[in-house]
Amino acid sequence: MVPRAVHTLQSVSVIACEDTRHSKKLLEHFSIDTPCIAYHDHTDQRSANKILNRLGGGEDVALISDAGTPLISDPGYRLVAQARSQGVSVIPIPGACAAISALSVSGLPTDKFRFVGFLPAKTAQRKNVLETLKSVHDTLVFYEAPHRICATLNDLIDVFGADRIAFMAREITKTFETYIYGTIAELFEKVSNDSNQQRGEIVLVLAGKIVSDESLSPDAEKIVKLLIKELPITKAASLAAKITGGDKKQLYQLALTLQNK
Q: For the chain, how many structural domains are there in total?
């Protein structure tokens, strides 16, 4: 919680919560006694209209979720869209976001990434979605439920291959936060053998498909192999690019793959 968020929740007329009982713990911790109303996935239009009427009457309304940044794989975008269509100002209060936090420490490229959110719960549908993503070159970011993490990792192996580089962040900022880096197969082994890793809120970050290395010189792999033994991956890729004239991003992806073979 950033100070601006605390001040905002103390000063608005009402707080729209995903779960008022869950949010009560947070509000009590910061001595916030602002009235709360429910707004979640199953909220009907009448409840949304009540919020819009308050806004139209000049009141300020805060929208919060149970965890993380509101509207990122959480309900609320329809309310924001309707508010904007009525000329209401909607302002974000920057704070923790699990997807960005995990991506920032994943060690995977961050210049281009695709946030996928939650995958389908059923295996067949999940694999269908993954099939559409296996040729994507951008880093991929997923949210996953703890009771599905092993099944999802298994599906990732089937679709992307066991050697694709991945990163798992669990319970970010909380007491039992953990971070695991390696191939998808290595993540699956560690998670399936440790029930503690099958609990809490999980973010999966997956390396994108390596861009075709046709533009790289024949000696690129040999040079990268030598350099990563002595240098960090980023420096190795940068130096390899200068030596071979190849693309630094392609060489970085190549170095990631070679390091984990």
A: 3
Question: Does any domain span residue 124?
Answer: yes
Which residue in the block uniquely carries the two structure tokens 């920032």? 104
CA angle, 59 then 55 then 43, to 5°: 120
Same domain for 18 and 67, yes or no, is yes
Token digits of residue 117: 């959110």
Contact 236, 227 (CB under 8 A): yes
> Are residues 217 and 202 part of one domain?
no
Q: CA 251 to CA 239: how far, in whole Å?
A: 10
The string of pLDDT tens digits covering residues 47-93 is 889 999 999 999 999 999 888 788 887 767 888 999 999 999 999 99
Structure tokens at 26: 């947070």
Say which CATH number the domain at 39 has.
3.40.1010.10
In this predicted model, what pLDDT tens digit does every residue of 120-169 receive, in sequence order? 999 999 999 999 999 898 999 999 999 999 999 999 999 999 999 999 99
**Angle between the N-to-C axes of helices 77-85 and 45-56, in degrees from 0 to 180, rounded to the nearest 10:** 40
